[in-house]
Write a structure and sequence with these properties.
The protein has a 3-stranded antiparallel beta sheet. Strands 6-7-8 form a 3-stranded antiparallel beta sheet. Strands 1-4 form a two-stranded antiparallel ribbon. It folds into 4 domains: 76 residues, no CATH class; 44 residues; 103 residues, Tetrahydropterin Synthase, Chain A; 39 residues. A hairpin with a 5-residue loop joins strand 6 and strand 7. It is elongated and about 160 Å long. It is built from 11 helices and 8 strands. It is of the alpha+beta class and 358 residues long. Its main location: mitochondrion. Belongs to the prohibitin family. Component of a prohibitin multimeric complex in mitochondrial membranes. It comes from Canavalia gladiata.
Length: 358
C-alpha cells in the first residue's frame, strides 16, 4: 500500500480499511483533539470542515510527516478521559495567571523624598511628574522611573594653576539635587545617572577658571571669597541642565612641595621677627621705667632735703615713724626682744625727750 492510495482512500471516506496503519491512528487522534478543544473554547459554535484545505488531507499529511521524523512503531496514543474539564481548568489557570500578573505589576510606590515619571511604549516619556504615594500603571505597556530628589553630596578634586603659576589641588564638596518639575527633560537628555554625566566636567572647568584669577597666597587668605565665586558660576552652569546646587564649599587646598616649604620658612621668619620686635619693645619699656624711677627718686630726695632744710624736725618725725614700725613688728613676734632707744633709731638725748630732764 503506497501513500497515494492511502490519501485517495481517505478522501473517499473509507478510513476503516487502514486502521492497522499507525499514521492514520495518529492523524485521527490529532483531529479529535482539535475538535474537542474547539468545542471547549466555543461551546455554542459547531466545528465545520473547511473546504480548503481538507482536514482529512491535512491530518493525513501530519501523520506522514511525523512518521518520517520519529520512530513511532511502538508508540500508543491513549485517549484522555475528561478532556473538557481539563481544558476548562487550563483556561481558568491561564486567566488567573494573567490576573495575578496584572495585579502585581499595575501598582508601584513612590517613597518619601522621591518623584516618579512614567515611560509608555506607545507615546514615550510622559510629561507628568508623580509625587509620593501609590500609583497605577498599565503592565508591560508602562514602567515607572523613580528619581531621588533629596540633596546628595559629591566630592570632587581638581588640580589647577594659580595666577603666579603655582599648582594647587582643590577638594570641592557639592550638594546637588534634580529639579522635580524638569524630571522628564532630565530623563530624555541625561538619563538616570545625570550627576556623573554633568558634574565632573562643569566642576573642573569652573575651578580652573576661578583659581587662575588668584595668587596662591590669596587662595589661602581669601578662601571664602573664592568659594562664593565658585558657587555662583557652578549654580548658573548646573541650572542649564536642570540641576539645583544647595551648597558649595572648599574642603582642602594642597600646594606643591616647594611652595609649602617656602610658606613654612616665611612663617618661621615672621615669628622670629615678631619675637625680636617684642624684645626691643620690652627693652625700651624697661629703659623708660628706669628713667622714670630715677627721676622719681631724685625728685623725692630733693623734696626731702628741702623739707629738712626748712624744718629740722622733719627728720625727727621720720625717725619716730620708723621706730614705731620696728616696735610693732617686734611686738608681734613670738620671741621677745629688748632694744635700747639707739637701736630704734632714736637718740633721746638729742631729742631732749628723756624723763626727768628739762
Amino acid at each position: 500500500m503506497d501513500k497515494k492510495t492511502s490519501l485517495y482512500s481517505w478522501k473517499k471516506g473509507t478510513p476503516h480499511d487502514y486502521h492497522g496503519s499507525l499514521e492514520m491512528q495518529i492523524s485521527l487522534n490529532v483531529l479529535k483533539c482539535l475538535q474537542l478543544l474547539h468545542k471547549t473554547l466555543n461551546p455554542t459554535k459547531k466545528l465545520h470542515k473547511p473546504r480548503t484545505p481538507n482536514p482529512s488531507v491535512w491530518s493525513a499529511s501530519i501523520g506522514i510527516s511525523i512518521s518520517r521524523k520519529m520512530n513511532l512503531k511502538n508508540m500508543k496514543v491513549p485517549n484522555v478521559p475528561g478532556g473538557g474539564a481539563a481544558s476548562a481548568l487550563l483556561k481558568l489557570g491561564v486567566v488567573g495567571g494573567i490576573g495575578l500578573y496584572a495585579a502585581a505589576n499595575s501598582l508601584y510606590n513612590v517613597e518619601g523624598g522621591h518623584r516618579a515619571i512614567v515611560f509608555n511604549r506607545l507615546v514615550g516619556v510622559k510629561d507628568k511628574v508623580y509625587p509620593e504615594g501609590t500609583h497605577f500603571i498599565i503592565p508591560w505597556f508602562e514602567r515607572p522611573v523613580i528619581y531621588d530628589v533629596r540633596a546628595r553630596p559629591h566630592l570632587v578634586e581638581s588640580t589647577s594653576g594659580s595666577r603666579d603659576l603655582q599648582m594647587v589641588k582643590i577638594g570641592l564638596r557639592v550638594l546637588t539635587r534634580p529639579m522635580p518639575s524638569h524630571l522628564p527633560t532630565i530623563y530624555r537628555t541625561l538619563g538616570e545617572n545625570y550627576n556623573e554625566r554633568v558634574l565632573p566636567s562643569i566642576i573642573h572647568e569652573t575651578l580652573k577658571a576661578v583659581v587662575a584669577q588668584y595668587n596662591a597666597s590669596q587662595l589661602i587668605t581669601q578662601r571664602e571669597a573664592v568659594s562664593r565665586e565658585i558657587r555662583k558660576i557652578l549654580t548658573e552652569r548646573a541650572a542649564n541642565f536642570n540641576i539645583a546646587l544647595d551648597d558649595v564649599s572648599i574642603t582642602s587646598l594642597t600646594f606643591g612641595r616647594e611652595f609649602t616649604a617656602a610658606i613654612e620658612a616665611k612663617q618661621v621668619a615672621a615669628q622670629e621677627a615678631e619675637r625680636a620686635k617684642f624684645v626691643v619693645e620690652k627693652a625700651e619699656q624697661d629703659k623708660r621705667s628706669a628713667v622714670i624711677r630715677a627721676q622719681g627718686e631724685a625728685k623725692s630726695a630733693q623734696l626731702i632735703g628741702q623739707a629738712i632744710s626748712d624744718n629740722p624736725a622733719f627728720i625727727t618725725l621720720r625717725k619716730i615713724e620708723a621706730a614705731r614700725e620696728i616696735a610693732h613688728t617686734i611686738s608681734n613676734a613670738a620671741n621677745k626682744v629688748y632694744l635700747n632707744s639707739d637701736d630704734l633709731l632714736l637718740n633721746l638725748q638729742e631729742m631732749k625727750l628723756e624723763s626727768g630732764r628739762k
